[in-house]
Fold these 4 entries.
Entry 1:
Amino acid sequence: MGGSIKPALSPSSVIRFDCLCLPEPKISASDQTILSADSSSKPVTLQCNLTTAHTPYRESFWMKNGKEISNTRTEQRNTVYRITKPRADDSGEYMCVYTFDMAPNANATIEVKAKPDITGHKRSENKNEGENAMMYCKSVGYPHPTWTWRKVDGTSYTDIDNSTGRFFITNRDNYTELNILNLDITTDPGIYECNATNVIGNTAETTILRVRSHLAPLWPFLGVLAEIIILVVIIVVYEKRKRKTNSTNNHKDKNIRQRNTK
């Protein structure tokens, strides 16, 4: 039994390999900005400054809503992005991103907010009773709006939701859609309003829904048929009068000839 037993290492003799963790870079960034609804609003300047970095710095660039903005890469620590003629569609989540040779990217976020601006909607919808109708609205603005629909009747209105079984509302970030099934010619025609609301404000647009009788497709045919009938009646009346006139004239000529022969 010639083997020898080695003594166990004490905790103090265990060699530890601890990672070297560097402090995160520090970035000074502009405060959030709220765009004015006025079309002549002043230019907006977003600014970031890399104040502290413990590893070699490479470059920076700007992103909007998760996508890089072209032609914004620079090697300067103090980076600026300018919006010369700000509109609602310039609002969003902007981010300045700094890259390093030996460390992960660092970034800071600046929110540019604006009330919703509805840029597209159906102005009118013409359908036949029993068919389905679809109306929609599109918007720009940040934060993304909350959408609501209602039917306007003069100074009063009725909120619309998905509880009736015939009205179905589909909402996405900057898009809403209202579908109405099996249109009723009595209750469904009217003015429908989509409303986009966020923390900055709200905007609304209207669509006129017209519902025609299911006989409406026959109206052009019936109109042509009526014109043909009227034309035929005119021709018949004209022919009758013409024959009557000719008969009268012939009778007069006969009387004249008879008097002349005496």
Entry 2:
Amino acid sequence: MMQMSMSSSEHAGGAGGLGVGVLPFDGMGLYEQPRPRLVFKMPRVVPEQKTKFETDELFRRLSRESEVRYTGYRDRPSEERQGRFQNGCREGHTEIAFAATGTNLQLVFTPASAGFGGDPRECDFDKEHGKVHLRSQLIMNGVCVRWRGWLDLERLDGVGCLELDEERAAQEDAILRDQIEGYNRRLRDFDDKQRVYRTGAAQASHLNHHHHHGHHGHHVSSGGAPSVEPHLAHRDPEMEVRLRAY
């Protein structure tokens, strides 16, 4: 009944060919009829996020700490890549991939230079010499998760994993419930209006049928006598003679 299309970044890689859809932006879906037009946004999360995180094979693999690599500017010299990686981190973004699965993620976090209003632990150059520790929240395959790990500033590789972001998952679940209830309410209103319209149309058709039938049944010819001939679809010769005699 509803056609939905989701705009998400999908990456497939590794021997397993595992894919991932990551949200920074919303998808849109449309449920259309000529009148009225109802527009539905694709939900950002799935029901039972915790269950999916614990049972989905991709999440099970990515929840274990494993090797990650910086994937930006792979065609550039090593020193230039190191500089671009650090600059990106200080601006609040970077691109990494899990080596085992080839799953690519675009991480967004509080810049290291942020003075206040953010969490400086999301990008920490001071925690360990020669490394940067990162944390980033994202919605992946309909589940709120948090990427946590570190990368070496020279080798541009390190270790990371995904964790279920339970606090944000609860917030998104509440939004999802409100969204579904809103859709159901709009559909109920639409069905009620359609039902009223169909009932009114049926009554109008019924009344029009009786009016039309009565109008032709009492048609008076120019001579003042009732004209029944147009209503006789099948006439036998004997009746035609009687009509003409009349």
Entry 3:
Amino acid sequence: MSVREEVLDKIEKFKSSVISSLTEISELDVTCKSIIEQHLNDSNSLNSKSVKKIQAVIDYMYEQVNIGNWKEVRLYLRKTLTVATYLRLKAHINFSDDVSDDVIKEGLRIIDFGILFGCPLDAEPNLLQLCASCLHSFIKHDEKPDIDGKVVITSTVKCENEHQNSKVLEVIDCPSMEHFFRNYILAEKPIVLDNCLNHWPAITKWQDQSYFIKLAGLRTVSIELGKDYTDANWTQKLMTIEDFIKNHIYNENGTTAYLAQYQLFDQIPELKKDIVEPEYCCFSETNDPVDIMAWYGPKGTVSPLHHDPKKNLLAQVVGEKQIFIFSPQDSEYLYPHEHELLNNTARIDPRLPNFEKFPKYKDAKGYYCVLKAGQMLYIPPKWWHFVESLSVSFSVSFWWE
């Protein structure tokens, strides 16, 4: 069996699950549905013309899911995009002469587009992620990376009570569940937790950025470009993790780039093996899963002063961040934006506050910390927080109700 046949055989094993998922896209129009059903039920029907038809379905679904508010997009449209991506991948491998790294790279690009704009199928929630793992296992890695990927903390900010309106946040050593619940969850009080991440493989593995290139360098992700999301020139761009690392993590003179608030671990489950959901997240009022987000970028990335509706444990894995945090009771002193889309974001920059423009800020009483690798910060719901990376940084946030 050739490598191409081996890859196709592995991908073909998901065919029955995909066929059973057709009931999930029953609202699909007749034309798109007939194209999908034909090529799912008869793999021999795949030819150069059918590839164009499948791509046309993908393009049409992409247009449909990008009309109006993302939250209001009908799920069957996104599920159709997932199914069509599976077919497009099969056709791509089927019509390739061999399975070279370039073929795999294009296959992963096809998959990631489907993951980013599609959504999981009930019949096989990890369909595209499993296909990506299959392809990735055939990549021929270079033994020597062409970058020195180890993060070095070249400068830091001393955590002293030198910031007006802010006092240094307390650090405690790995509290008991009962102590954390009683004194911080119930009291809605922020705290830095030390020595809670020592068992994470990520604490050692992620210090070398070439690890990400080897494990997931060919994967496509959405990167934020610009000073921060309130900036008029802020935008987003799709790029591979390898391009992001080489062109932005180690290039502080270019446009600021940030993989921010990103569901990286759903897209690339192999990375999730390096972290462990903190036990403190069990103090939940619902049965909903914990939202796990990645924050990865160079020195100087900023999340402006804002608040979130859920409890938040921010785990610092690589590098350091300086963080300012304020109670909801200080909201009137922080000058939130009036625009509906930014009403959870304030206009104050706690690093250099403009008291002439924002005089009420002098009455705010906040906290300050430098969050170091291996520490976690608990941020209660609705507490304002400003975050700046002091070095190359990778953080993981756990949000729950």
Entry 4:
Amino acid sequence: MIARASPQAVSAVQWLLENYETAEGVSLPRSTLYNHYLRHCYENKLDPVNAASFGKLIRSVFLGLRTRRLGTRGNSKYHYYGIRLKASSSLLCQSQDSGGEEGSSRGGKRFRVSQTKLEEPVQATPLQEYLGDSSQAIPELPEVEIPPGLPLPHMCSLEDIDTFRSIYREHCEAFLDAIVNLEFATIETLWREFWRSQENTNGDECEEEKYLSKTKLFMISKLRPVQEFVKRVDFLFYQNLVQVLIPDVLRPIPSSLTQAIRNFAKGLESWLSSAMVGCPPDMVDIKVSAVCALGQTLRRYTSLNHLAQAARAVLQNSVQINQMLADLNRVDFHNVQEQASWVCECDGGLVARLEADFKTTLQTQNSLEEWASWLKAVVNSVLKPYRGRRGFSAAARQLLLKWSFYSSMVIRDLTLRSAASFGSFHLIRLLYDEYMFYLVEHQVASATGTSPIAVMATKSCGLDYSERNGNNNNNNTNINNNKEGESESLTKKMRLS
């Protein structure tokens, strides 16, 4: 009995026939071709076939199609050799409309198609205009250093290690393509493809199996040098993805994009955990730890952005500013300072200077960006004596704790006095706490020579960028965990008042 082709397979074959034809001397990267198929399915609300099935369909449509590994050692990619775009393909037409077929420009978000390298569609959606430069998002992949004498798994070779490095880069490229095109739903598919949790992974039929079998992939993933490679690449790559999605935490972005990013962040851990079922536990821990840090960072930054836009309206309202000044002048700062000094051992002179600066900056009705510059100057001033010293991370944590305690005391005083501008102050306080955390996070990352995402990562993958005798930097995240839902409800109240 002949098995009936699924609707997804029929659709994939039709798409291939409409856009490609056999041709000698021409090659297309395997990963980008499949990624364009995923995009086609996403745009047309179709269920895609997995990578393994897609590879079989290509070979069934284009008989005699060959696969070649092109590029220098360590940076090679697998290409389909003997296939090209049709002259009538809409992808090719888009490329010609953009003024040529050479190369690509991820940073400008205008991507072109060539016969040797298939890149992104030229037309950018309005939401994509809010994204940052993605041209350098894929980091320079380090070599996988295998120490002399380290035994390799049975039937695995250094060539297999090199293959892992190559397909990991391909995976990152496909990941970036999906992010740049805001096709978050394809990320789960990409993870399932790489870690072979898709069906039909028969060694003779699956494209991935021809380059690195699932058995070898899992065996190699147990090697400590490979795990260190993945950890290092993921933290660098995910940090770059944050910069692509949210290039400026204070810049207004559409609520639809904010919500899409938050939904994406919410699904990351479950998608990856599902895709890595059966993988070596140590590798799972490393991957999930990095992805959790990515998700947490995206949630925090979108909350910060939401707070910034709500606070911008307050800072531009002279009536509210005048009321805030009047209420602030009634605060018993002497009592606040006494309590803060006893609990936090705050420098009285520094606190007095910050209080005066705050009032002056509020009175001059500075913009949000000017307030941000003031906060940055505060962080730089307080942490300057510790820069280059072992206690920098501990000092940074203390700054966050003292700032949070002192500001909470001021809010307490305003609350007891039933200040008319309490809502405005509470919103500003949330924003400044969140932005202060953002600044300190980046300062610690710079001081420790790592990325902010790595600073915030859990200890589950053996990372701790605080001092050896200090606590994990993750303890600082508790300051922010209760603010995400608070900001949205407060903003609604501010609109009603």
